[in-house]
UniProtKB/TrEMBL annotation:
Keywords: Repeat, Transferase. It comes from the Bacteria. This is Sulfurtransferase. The keyword Transferase applies. Signal peptide: none annotated. Residues 29-133, 165-278 form the Rhodanese domain. The keyword Transferase applies.
Length: 280
């Protein structure tokens, strides 16, 4: 059974038994409130595990949830009983912000059979289904996880600096229009407002509907192409590398190349007085 990167509830319910593992990647954005740990223990998919993005990261870096090295990622996946051959369905309690970031991380380290549930667990309950009735998950593996890093999915500050003078690259910023144009303060202290010179504003909220599901592929394609995606190589950015992954998933769903995520995103760029910014 070949699955697309983004799957709906109907596809989830039709998964073959004992082939996929379910990982809850729910995470809070700055300013949001909630307790996803408690929610996970109250309602989850059968034998699901938590994929805690704020733990599976480079702890030595002062920037938030920076992607870890391959050995760190492999150790977490091994502890979860997952090999690179295990099918994975990432989901959020609602929506897919954490799941899209987790999907990008797994793809970065060479995982192919990895998918995001569109709309998250909320989409399952909204359909009147019991999350415990989805297909039985795969058993936990007893062998180590082996990575195969795809560096072409990752961008650093130097790549973004180079892109500023490259007409064949477009930077898509997933933050709100207000943050992009420095009309509101940044949520992180000591961070300037504005955007990278020449970047295009594409709030992640424009890509999903009021229920947290992605809008239709043709709508995504038109929106992305209007900003140059498809004709130019893409670097996605946001506040800290989370919602940039929502844009990356939108690119995949639209049938375009996923581009690269600038992992440091505005948390790094906006806090560095040496990097150029625009506010209009």
């Amino acid at each position: 059974m070949t699955l697309a990167p983004l799957i709906d509830v109907q596809t989830l319910m039709a998964l073959p038994v004992r082939r996929y593992r379910y990982l809850d990647a729910s995470i809070l954005l700055p300013g949001q409130e909630g307790d996803f740990e408690a929610a996970f223990h109250e309602l989850a998919f059968p034998q699901a595990d938590r994929f805690r993005i704020n733990e599976i990261c480079e702890k030595a870096d002062s920037l938030p949830h920076m992607v870890p090295g391959a050995a760190v990622f492999a150790s977490f996946m091994t502890a979860l009983g997952i090999t690179r051959e295990t099918g994975i369905v990432f989901y959020d309690q609602k929506g897919s912000i954490g799941a899209c970031r987790a999907h990008w991380m797994a793809s970065l380290f060479g995982h192919d059979a990895v998918h995001v549930l569109d709309g998250g667990l909320a989409a399952v309950t909204r359909a009147g289904l019991n999350p415990q009735e989805i297909p039985e998950p795969a058993p936990k593996a007893q062998e180590p996880y082996l990575t195969r890093t795809r560096y072409a999915l990752l961008a650093g500050k130097g790549d973004v600096l180079d892109a500023l003078d490259d007409p064949d690259v477009v930077i898509l910023d997933a933050r709100s229009h207000a943050r992009f144009h420095a009309e509101v303060p940044e949520p992180r202290p000591n961070t300037r407002g504005g955007h990278m010179p020449g970047a295009s504003s594409l709030p992640y909220s424009d890509l999903i509907d009021e229920q947290g599901c992605f809008v239709q592929p043709d709508v995504l394609l038109a929106r992305l192409q209007s900003l140059g995606a498809g004709q130019r190589r893409v670097i996605t950015s946001c506040g800290s590398g989370l919602t940039a992954a929502t844009v990356t998933m939108a690119l995949r769903v639209a049938g375009l190349a996923p581009g690269r995520i600038y992992d440091g995103s505005w948390a790094e760029w906006g806090s560095d007085p040496a990097t150029p910014i625009e506010a209009s």
